[in-house]
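Hi there, hope your week has been kind to you so far. It would help a lot if you went through both lines with me. No rush at all, and the record is pasted right below:

***
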Amino acid sequence: MKKKLISSCLISTSLMILESHTSFANEQVASVQTPSTHNTRQSRTPYNFSGFYVGAFVGGTTMNTKVENFLDLTAIIPAEDTFINTLNFRKSSFMGNILLGYRKQFANQFIAGFELNGGFFNQNMEKNYDAQTPNLGILNLKMRLKRSYSIRPSLILGWAITPRMAVLGSLGVGSSRFEQTLQRTSAIANQNTIHTAKQWAHSLVPGLGFEYALTPHFSLAASFHYEFFQQLNFNLPGVFDTTSLDGVNRSNLKPAAYNYMVGIVYKF
């Protein structure tokens, strides 16, 4: 009788120990397979590019243009002809850019938005050239072309390729302020006579950029834009003085520019 009782107690104790070990093992497996709610929430909450944002960029710009310069002196010397000079300008310089925009990131990671850019330039291109005339000899001239600032609204389309990185394309219409200066440096009549004209030039501006989120609010960004400008037509007084008898100087040019920038974006 005692042997049966002892055997029953041993069997019961063994079953309890086995059950406790099995329960502990199941809990460990469940804890490994099921992460905490906090970790799950973090892993399922990617950076979102939606919202209003501002940005500041610095970089460079390279502009090139071909200028056809028409110098008409027949108003003061009928025997003279109209002289055509072709000049090629190319200059790389510093630029800065600020922007304000809004965009929306959809469930399929597609991004669409609108932004307004303001550009500031230090582009000052100049070229010395000579105009050979039958009666006045050689006129030594200097032409200067300058762009100072621009305004550009743009449509934005992009794709969030990872939770923190987006590739963004843009298409904008820009307006830039240009200034042309003509200076005569030869010793005929009033030396160093300077005439200046200013005008706005419009451009079509496609672009491509990348943005990487450092935090939910701050991002690093890089962009490249190409500007196709309309033809510019400058009409200046000639190369002597500002009287009505002065010659006429006309310039036709169609610039193009490459802009490459890096900067930081803050999303509200």
Summary: Confidence is low (pLDDT under 50) at residues 29-45, 241-245.
